[in-house]
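Quick one: structure for this chain?
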Amino acid sequence: MLVVWLGLLTLAAGLVPGLLAGPGWAAFALPPLALLVWGWVMLERNWRSWRYAERSDDLLISRGVLWREETVVPYGRMQLVEVTSGPLERHFGLASVQLHTAAAASDATIPGLVPAEAERLRDRLTELGEARSAGL
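Got it. Here's what it folds into:
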């Protein structure tokens, strides 16, 4: 969303002074343009940092560029697994898998999945969750 706003700010900062005061004043668009390029690079790096691994007893989710964060969700603790897809995700053909546990602070999300992979992961995690919590 920041990239969209920076794109609009770049256009406004370049067009308005350029049209009203002359082409030299369009240089005011350079700082927002530099921020836009930097934001796009950081967005791409952040998106590529998301990883998940289906391990024997839990799901490992890791993310982050500067600060790495890892979340481990045991299959037996999962209460609800859902696939969500907002308007922006649907536009780009993506979906998210959201895991809910009994503790509100331990919910986890895996964004940016292809919808078929998100549905496969949801079904697999639901199956593993039912198998692991059957003894309780």
